[in-house]
Amino acid sequence: MHQHIETLYQTAAKSQRKIIGLMSGTSLDGLDIALCTVTGEGLNTEVVLERFTTLSYHDDFRSRVRSVFSKRAVDLQTVTLLNPWIGQEHGRMVNECLALWQIPHTEIDVIASHGQTIFHCPSRQHNDNRWGNATLQLGDGDHLAVTTGITTISDFRQKHIAAGGEGAPLAVYGDFLLFSSSAENRIMLNIGGIANLTWLPKSQDATAVFSSDIGPGNTIMDAYIQQNFPGLLYDEGAKVAASGKVSAELLMALQQDPFFALDFPKTSGPEVFNLDYLARAQQDSATQDLAPADVMATLNRFSAEMIIRAIQQSCQGQNCTIYASGGGIHNPLLMEQLAAALPHYRLTTTAELAINPDAKEAVLFAVLANECLVGGKQPFSNAREGIPAVTMGKISFAD
What we know:
This protein has about 400 residues and is an alpha/beta fold. The protein has helices spanning about 5-15, 60-65, 75-100, 125, 140-150, 155-160, 170-180, 220-230, 240, 250-255, 275-285, 290-315, 330-340, 360-375; strands at about 15-25, 30-40, 45-55, 110-120, 135-140, 150-155, 185-190, 195-200, 210-215, 320-325, 345-350, 395.
């Protein structure tokens, strides 16, 4: 037996594993790094979040990634060079974090890396029957493993697509394993660049669970702020949006995309919901002369309206508790609109479930890595569209 396979066997046989989950979202604000102690597997999985931080990306990193991010026409050499470079940069950031925490690399069993999505392309988006679903994340696992000296599990989304899924949202797997409850129906709402949710019925029937993208969370708002307010990455405290007035005409135009009429589950990304999308909506509604604050107020309401509609559609009149996570929970105007429109549901965050809401996605990838090592196929039915019963992740050794 190769020594690396033997080491993996020994890691899988442990009563608990130290796993670092990494998440880099479409906002490109930084790398989420979550050190987790994971015990058990499947529905017996337990996670303790030991440490968490987000290390900000430097301007050069953002600039390089944005040169290829969500664009159909890019320089192929740049994409080729970025793949190992992002892996090395993420590895360097993990090294920096472990040094800050004064934790030896030898204490970490594996790294679970999501990578950096640069293009997400389900078949309903490209609408070309010659091709199936596709997605691309950069940040090669081999380079991350070599840079840190830690075995790395990465590229989770490809198996999902190979088994018939769209490559997203993958949160459904970890959500079901960690957060299912026989005491209440739950919606796990993540408001990142794109908002998504997972429906967890209190029956705990895996075949009744579903997860879906909703539409834009922060992505268009962030892009608009960066374009119109130099030096700002996002609308901190919703100050700009709160100072503006919602345009009913623009709001109506923003809601007309065919994506919103599709049944769950469905996926999308900044490839669809971006500044070009906003420009077309403004042209269609003759609102090109709106003040920036009014545009931001409308974009904020747009995200809120789509989330509200998706929650109501998912709950179907049943009582449920909404556990929110992601950067959108820090947008007070957005959260106020959700609470006001959903008075019959309890709206809280995953902090109530002992998971830092900013760390949740990184934690969920640590759970997927744990399942790759010690679990079996996820307890879902392949017959249910969008949630294939598969084990995900590719293993990269450090030498």
